[in-house]
Specification:
Strand order of the largest sheet of chain A: 3-2-1-5-8
Number of helices of chain A: 7
Order of helices and strands of chain B: HHHHHHHHHHHHHHEHHEHEHHEH
Number of strands of chain A: 10
Order of helices and strands of chain A: HHHEEEEEEEEEEHHHH
Distance between the termini of chain B: 13 Å
Oligomer: heterodimer
Helix content of chain A: 25-40%
Shape of chain B: globular
CATH topology of one domain in chain A: Immunoglobulin-like
Number of helices of chain B: 20
CATH superfamily of one domain in chain A: Cupredoxins -  blue copper proteins
Strand order of the largest sheet of chain B: 1-2
Helix content of chain B: 55-70%
Structural class of chain A: alpha+beta
């Protein structure tokens, strides 16, 4: 089956190259330029079903056009009453049976792929990550590794990574279109899916289940790096000293403000599992601030003083003591220096 | 009663007439105005959505308000626009098509309308009372339970009241079609629109109770401290999705099947041919309805039901494509060899065929589970269901209105404006929604308040917004057309389209008793048969006699008003004790009205035979 699927794909890529290149969307975001196992499976079926269905549409449109040209009442035509036809058994059988055959062509690979993507037999030998969806951020806990992180999910390229997903509040949906289709993140049961990236890169992830005012801002990234880089990253993350003092004085002040202002009651640094708010262990390496803004000091100060202006309805607003712009600047300085590892989103190129 | 006579009556008399009427033709007008009003409202909400998405990181509306708008757009369009407009057509046409003097339960017919209207008004009161519901038209828990304020409470109470009206309407049409067909009209001689109404009514009867149950559970969770859906207290959140879609998927067929009937009538009339494969069309309708109950979990492929459930629901969903395909080909075959007149009603029908075929195509595509992992909850799905609901239901409603307007109002809609409406709406529709297939696959999830710069989603969204304004223009032209026609439109003949079915055998608009004598039906396309045999009119099946008619009643209005007040009471008793006055007061009005209805014997009245004889034929 892989053989003819491959041929179909090659054919389409050839035929649609111009179109796909110009209109398939942003690289590492769009599902039309798949770069992972699940996305491949989906893409193959998208192409197959599109071709079959375009065939049906073509047949309908050809008949439709002929009918309209031939049988439209013309000016000056003599009035007559057309023959009243009740039906035609042969024709009716044909347009019942052919669609059934077309559907079987779609159904068989669909079901094969469905079971393939639900296969959990390799889970115990693979990297397992507990994914928690929260309004409006994502938490990642690398099982058995004492690594906790939020917003940026690091994975080794070319490896199956199993995601065991659960929500802490309402339903979310984990979607990284370029790598894999989506799966819901429910509050009541753990859903498991696996992802596998073919190429190194930073992939856009989005929440796909309506979850409140900042649903559209609940972005995250999947950072696929080489196995060596991933091992390095894991080691560095495990060896983080959460108490480590930053070097410059401003950041040191920021660190003590971070404790004074009770930030620690929600935000963990290091591998402790507290997760009322995002884990900040590698905050300085984040690809984005809060998933959507550029990681600059200015934006971070704005976030600390007025998170509502960036993510409406977030759970941080109103739950921490007053922080002045000056204090926020110092905290920001401290947070931006949390770079426990050299493996960053830039490594994934 | 002639038009001249009705023009002499004062505004108050007309108003009172409509408030108390039990005549299916006037209730059709009420449904049309009510549904039309909510259609315009839902359209405004759609425009707000499109303006917000015109450019990346736009802030035309705030995130929270945007969620209210998108929730109300969906809820309004499905429950308060599409459903009542379909009921308007059913009420206007079905009794005439099957040769009946009214529906089986005229009083209930009126009650159904007022329940819908007051339910819809209650829902929309939320705009002025602290904010509209904001959990999506699907109201998924836990989001709908944790949503602050009273928005979702209005959703629950409003839909519960409006839903009761729909259920009553469905039962009424079921009883009407089973018991009140004219002599000789066997089931297999019934016009296809009556058939699809019949099947739709069965769907309503079985689908709406699932919504009722779901809404009750949600109501108790939100207002009375139960925990059916609260995972923390041992409840189950996924069960809401099952309940909602066990209702919600048949609802999709409730929305489309009646319009399949409309298209069948329009195509047959304007091709001057009998419907090709009538029997196949009837059984395809039944099959679609039956399968419609077997496919609800295809809305839940991403929930994590497992590969077995996903595969079964995928196959069942694909199976629906077969009877739907049969219908498309039968329509094409009906036109084949015919003599096609293209006017506004036919234009909407001809626009429907390619549009709905594309919607059906993408329907099969989303049925393929693994492909759906990408489509699901993205703009692809938004495009898909607008192709079937706008391309099917809305196009169908426009076709039906152009086709039956003469029978409903005695005047023909202006053709030039009709064509202008069609072309702007049709082009605008494809501009708006075709590009959304690609937006979805390019990584734009649905219900997104905004999208970030630099994700190459800008151009597609701009095209989409431009298209939406074309559609709005088309709708405005239609409203102008309706007003123009009412004021100085061309008077309609009894049979302006050379029709085939019973409704064209009587006056436009019909007398309030519809048929002076019950017609004798001798086959499918009863009027056409008589025309072909040179008679041109139906043979009466009974001698001229007194006609028994139901009395008007103000009680349906009072009952619905009572429920509306009680609904407000239910919503506010959570915070305020004074709300119990509303709650019990409203219930008292409703139950009192029911008591009055039960205690008072109302046998209706008779139109005497000699009065009927005096009226001009």
């Amino acid at each position: 089956m892989k053989g003819w699927m491959g041929k179909i794909r090659a054919f389409c890529l050839l035929g649609l190259t111009a179109f796909v290149l110009s209109a398939c969307g942003k690289e590492n975001l769009t599902a039309l330029d798949p770069k992972g196992y699940g996305a491949d499976q989906s893409f193959n079926l998208i192409i197959l079903t599109t071709i079959v269905m375009l065939f049906v549409l073509a047949v309908v449109m050809v008949v439709y056009t002929i009918v309209l040209i031939r049988y439209r009442k013309k000016k000056g035509q003599k009035d007559y009453i057309p023959k009243q036809v009740e039906g035609n058994k042969t024709l009716e059988t044909v347009w019942t049976v052919i669609p059934i055959i077309l559907l079987l062509i779609i159904a068989v690979p669909t079901i094969t792929a469905t079971f393939d993507l639900a296969d959990e037999s390799a889970a115990s030998d693979s990297l397992n990550v507990q994914v928690t969806g929260n309004q409006y951020w994502w938490h990642f806990n690398y099982e058995g590794q004492e690594i906790q992180t939020s917003q940026d999910l690091y994975i080794p390229v070319g490896e199956k990574v199993y995601l065991n997903m659960k929500s802490s509040d309402v339903i979310h949906s984990f979607w990284v279109p370029a790598i894999s289709g989506k799966m819901d993140v429910n509050p009541e049961n753990e859903n498991t899916m696996y992802i596998e990236a073919h190429e190194e890169g930073v992939y856009w992830g989005k929440c796909a289940e309506f979850c409140g005012p900042s649903h559209s801002l609940m972005d995250f990234k999947v950072v696929a790096v080489s196995q060596d880089e991933f091992d390095q990253w894991a080691q560095d993350m495990q060896n983080v000293d959460p108490e480590a003092e930053p070097e410059d004085a401003v950041a040191q002040e920021g660190q003590s403000l971070f404790q004074e202002k009770n930030c620690m009651s929600c935000h963990a640094i290091g591998s402790s599992p507290a997760q009322i708010g995002p884990n900040l262990t590698d905050f300085g390496n984040r690809s984005k601030l809060a998933g959507v803004e550029d990681l600059t000091k200015e934006n971070l100060v704005q976030w600390i003083t007025d998170p509502e202006s960036i993510k409406p309805g977030n759970k941080m607003t109103g739950n921490y003591p007053e922080v002045s712009d000056d204090e926020a600047g110092k905290i920001a300085e401290y947070l931006l220096q949390l770079k426990p590892t050299d493996i960053t989103p830039e490594s994934a190129q | 009663m002639s038009t001249a006579a009705s023009q002499k009556r004062g505004f108050g008399t007309v108003l009172w007439d409509y408030l108390t009427t039990v005549d299916h033709k006037k209730i059709a007008h009420l449904y049309l105005f009510g549904g039309g009003f909510f259609f315009l409202l839902g359209g405004l909400e759609a425009l707000a959505i499109r303006i917000q998405l015109l450019q990346p990181e736009n802030d035309f509306v705030s995130a929270g308000f945007y969620n209210e708008i998108l929730t109300m757009h969906g809820t309004t369009m499905i429950f308060l626009a599409a459903m009542p407009l379909i009921f308007a057509i059913m009420n206007a046409v079905v009794p005439l098509q099957i040769g009946a003097r009214d529906v089986a339960f005229p009083f209930l017919n009126s009650l159904g309308f007022w329940l819908f209207l007051f339910g819809g008004l209650l829902l929309n009161c939320s705009w002025f009372l602290g904010g509209a519901p904001d959990a999506g038209w699907t109201g998924y828990v836990p989001l709908s339970i944790t949503s602050p304020g009273h928005g979702v409470d209005f959703y629950v109470m409003g839909l519960q009241i409006a839903g009761a009206g729909t259920l009553i309407g469905g039962i009424n049409f079921l009883a009407t079609i089973v018991t009140m067909r004219a002599p000789g009209m066997t089931y297999m001689r019934m016009p296809l629109f009556s058939w699809t109404t019949f099947i739709t009514s069965i769907l309503i009867l079985f689908a709406f109770p699932a919504l009722t149950v779901g809404l009750f559970l949600l109501m108790f969770d939100r207002m009375f401290g139960s925990a059916f859906f609260d995972v923390g207290l041992g409840g189950n959140a996924i069960i809401w999705q099952h309940l909602f879609w066990i209702f919600g998927h048949p609802e999709v067929y409730i929305l489309i099947l009646p319009l399949f009937g409309v298209f069948s009538e329009v195509i047959s009339t304007f091709s001057k041919k009998r419907l090709f494969g009538y029997t196949a069309m009837v059984f395809a309708t039944i099959l679609i309805a039956f399968l419609g109950f077997m496919v609800w979990a295809h809305h839940m492929f991403a929930v994590g039901l497992g590969p077995v459930a996903n595969s079964i629901f995928s196959l069942a969903t694909m199976a629906i494509a077969v009877p739907t395909g049969i219908k498309i080909f039968n329509w094409l075959a009906t036109m084949w060899g015919g003599r096609i007149t293209i006017n506004s009603a036919m234009l909407w029908t001809l626009g429907f065929i390619p549009t709905f075929t594309i919607g059906g195509m993408t329907g099969v595509m989303v049925a393929s589970v693994v492909a759906d992992y990408q489509y699901h909850d993205s703009y692809f799905v938004v495009a898909h269901f607008h192709y079937v609901i706008v391309g099917g239901t809305v196009f169908g409603i426009f076709a039906a209105l152009h086709y039956w307007w003469p029978k409903m109002f005695g005047r023909v809609l202006n053709e030039a404006m009709g064509k202008l409406t069609f072309w702007t709406f049709f082009i605008g529709f494809h501009l708006t929604f075709f590009i959304q297939h690609f937006l979805g696959l390019m990584g734009m999830p649905r219900r997104y308040w905004t999208y970030l710069e630099g994700q190459q989603l800008d151009l597609g969204n701009q095209i989409s917004t431009v298209g939406a304004f074309f559609m709005a223009f088309g709708v405005i032209v239609f409203v102008i057309n309706a007003i123009y026609t009412a004021v100085k439109g061309e008077k309609a003949a009894d049979d302006p389209w050379d029709g085939r079915t019973l409704e064209w055998s009587i006056a436009s608009p019909p007398a309030h008793y519809n048929f002076k004598q019950m017609p004798l039906v001798r086959g499918l396309d009863a009027l056409w048969i008589e025309k072909m045999e040179g008679k041109g009119r139906l043979t009466p099946a009974e001698p001229l006699g007194d006609i028994h008619m139901p009395n008007s009643s103000f009680l349906p209005f009072m009952m619905s008003l009572g429920l509306f007040i009680a609904g407000l009471g239910f919503i506010y008793q959570v915070n305020y004790n004074w709300a119990y006055i509303l709650l019990f007061g409203g219930m008292a009005i409703m139950l009192g009205s029911m008591l009055a209805r039960s205690l008072k014997d109302d046998h209706g009245y008779h139109i005497p035979k000699d009065e009927l004889e005096r009226e001009v034929d």
